[in-house]
Design goal:
The structure is a homodimer. Chain A is α/β, with parallel strands linked by helices. Chain A folds into two domains: 113 residues, Urease, subunit C, domain 1 (Roll), CATH 2.30.40.10; 306 residues, Metal-dependent hydrolases (TIM Barrel, Alpha-Beta Barrel), CATH 3.20.20. Helix content of chain A is 37%, strand content 23%. Chain A is built from 13 helices and 17 strands. Chain A has a seven-stranded mixed sheet with strand order 3-2-1-4-15-16-17. In chain A, α2 runs parallel beside α3. The longest helix of chain A has 19 residues. At the A-B interface, α2, α9, α11 and α13 of A face α2, α9, α11 and α13 of B.
Chain lengths: 429, 429
């Protein structure tokens, strides 16, 4: 059997940007972890699958698993605290002091178990995760993620300037050796769900020499890359000072092979991306992880998501814990809509607000593409799903399935309404 | 005994705007529903109170009850659905069709029981509530609110233009008769916690004749007033067309005695209040109910809360369900901070972001003042409190009480962490 079954319920997904498909009391075939189509009833299922076990979700809502393209595991411990700062001050006063603690593997083990259990309980099935600069602690994070059942990329962070001494690599060669050790060790552990990702924290904390070394390693091991881009005006200015030869912020990564082209790359934010930077993002196939909560919390601004989408740029959503305080991608979906409304109102009247179906697409298929065929129930997609029981939400009013879906996401039913969860066909909850 | 006891726990409140007072494992005396001071331990309590029953909240966080200055009870049924509209379209397509249902008292009874149970479970202890134009259904709403234990003002809505026929008063004299009936009947029912409030929906749906009648009734019965103000550019334009003699939006209310001066008045929003309107708000002692979620959801904008506060205008928070989808004032606290960050970033660099302690003040003592001495644990204040158990939120990191409070509000622990709740000394939960 393996990960093969028929799931019956109210199937909701967004096969294309802006189009929501809802199939009442329908069946999805999952064969060896892969979707093999949606059918109105069992008699319509192709014969080779018709005898599979049926998992009946009753009147539950079945959604693709949520994809979190940007989250910092060590910051989970202080989420919802220290919220009254802007980016660079917040790093110094809140974030870096916490990340220093992860030199202690005992602390890391406790903290990362809480982190991975938190993600396991929610609607997220895939995540792209920052650790800290510490190799051993970041391997512990990978152990925890592997155990959680989620599928993730995890990165050992690299920094060699503008960081506290405890979080600064001793030399580029040591950083390189540590990154190789991290990659090799993570491969030795034979994870099925957890892969390494190259992680320069961001240009202000990475010298050109360090980025050059990371670019070499990336190429050698054929790994993806994650980092931050054009988040805050002060940060963008600092990058222009530190990297005068770069044409724009993203170019500072691109010069070292850390900005898409050959390997998948995800950059968080892009609020202050210039037209030139947007063009490079598009040309290089870089994903933007849009993190609306964090962008409000740190007073960073609002990313031009409508512009990204019109241009054809790949966009997914990120919670950016701890800049964002919530690990819920449901919340990121509604935050995305809210800030797009303000963007339209105050910044660009030609950039229409994002609609619910569009934002849900970003949270699923949009970010899912970073992992391959993920985030939809179309034939050939990996079977990532959450099943929600919304019966706790009483209503005097008759509600359509579309209403129930929208309400479940807005009211964050991922906190208490998840009854089943699958990643690549394996049941997590 | 009555409502007299000593409550022991971690006491958190904001006696002044911007100052958070936290007393670890301290005692509050509640005598006949009124706070009589905070004491470090029982031996310091004045002798006349020392023998009172002690309610020990252990390591729980004790906060003032939250005050919701603006919520629409009939819209609770569709909260989190129909979110892809701007104000005037949303009224026509989502809100009015639902409000029409409340002509049916059976429907109203079912819907308002769900509404009042929802508020009861949360952290809100006081609310200022819109019903519909229907007298009987709005009295049912008052019955439900009285039973909930919350303390509230409830209004029968008035509209006599620009609304569907089913929601339009047949004549001003009938509207006047209905409003009097509503007030008289609500008084006959002898509620202890639930009071009527004069409720013109907003200028676009109220003729001058109707507002004049409501002004007379207000004066005669000495009642407070609630309505909407300067929420959306299209609405503001419409008001200028409809009421050309009014100097500004708020003046259209003021001309009929519905804008503070003699009676308490709360106006939701004030996003587009001009300097003249702000001055009148200040001079007349009008409260602004700041509703950040609704203002994002309906693409209305961001209210200049920092400006209101600098000017000395009274401000509290509102959830504005169903423009806002959540009934949580904890969420309104953090939404307020987030939108103030964006206001600073994009609209006015001289209007500094609101800090956590400031926003919490608005949610408690700021809005509480509409009810009298409410929203603080100072001597003489009515004892409204919620007790939170945050032990479900694990952390590897040592947290201060301030961290725990901030985290509990950001992570909306009012959803599942409330272990006790009191309004004017009466235990609700």
């Amino acid at each position: 059997m393996g990960n093969s079954f028929i799931l019956k319920g109210n199937i909701c997904h967004t096969p294309r940007l802006g189009s929501l498909e809802i199939r009442e009391h329908a069946c999805i075939v999952c064969a060896e972890g892969t979707c093999r189509g949606i059918f109105d009833n069992i008699s319509q299922i192709p014969e080779q699958y018709r005898a599979l076990e049926v998992i009946d979700c009753g009147d539950g809502l079945v959604l693709p698993g949520m994809v979190d393209l940007h989250i910092h595991a060590p910051q989970y411990a202080f989420r919802g605290t220290g919220m009254d700062y802007e980016l660079l001050k917040w790093l110094d006063r809140v974030t870096f002091p916490e990340e220093i603690r992860y030199a202690d593997t005992g602390y890391a083990a406790r903290a990362y178990e809480i982190f991975s259990n938190g993600l396991k309980k929610g609607a997220t099935t895939r995540a792209v995760i920052f650790g800290t600069i510490h190799v051993r602690s970041t391997l512990i994070l990978m152990d925890c993620m592997e155990k959680s059942g989620l599928i993730s990329f995890v990165g050992k962070v690299n920094m060699d300037r503008h960081a506290p001494p405890e979080l600064t690599e001793k030399s580029v060669s040591e950083a390189e050796a540590d990154t190789r050790l991290f990659i090799e060790e993570s491969r030795k552990r034979g994870y099925r769900r957890t892969k390494p990702i190259i992680t320069p924290r961001f240009v202000p904390t990475c010298t050109g020499e360090l980025m050059e070394a990371l670019g070499r390693i990336r190429k050698e091991y054929d790994l993806p890359v994650q980092s931050h881009l054009s988040e805050n005006p002060g940060e963008v200015e600092l990058v222009a000072e530190l990297e005068p030869e770069a044409a724009f912020y993203g170019d500072a990564y691109d010069r070292y092979g850390l900005f898409g082209r050959e390997g998948n790359t995800v950059m968080a934010h892009g609020i202050y991306s210039t037209p030139e930077e947007m063009q490079r993002i598009l040309d290089n196939g870089v994903w933007i992880a849009h993190c609306p909560a964090s962008n409000m919390d740190l007073a960073s601004g609002i990313a031009p998501v409508r512009r990204f989408l019109e241009k054809g740029i790949r966009v997914g959503l990120g919670t950016d814990v701890g800049g964002g305080f919530s690990d819920s991608i449901f919340r990121a979906v509604t935050d995305t809509i809210q800030v797009s409304n303000l963007y339209w109102r105050y910044i660009d009247r030609n950039a229409g607000p994002l609609k619910f179906a569009e934002s849900l697409y970003l949270a699923t298929k949009g970010g899912g593409a970073f992992f391959g065929k993920v985030g939809s129930f179309e034939d050939g997609y990996e079977f990532d799903a959450v099943v929600l029981d919304d019966s706790s939400l009483q209503s005097a009013r008759p509600l359509t399935l579309g209403d129930r879906l929208e309400r479940a996401v807005y009211l964050e039913l991922d906190r208490e309404g998840i009854v089943m969860k699958f990643a690549a066909g394996e049941r997590i909850l």
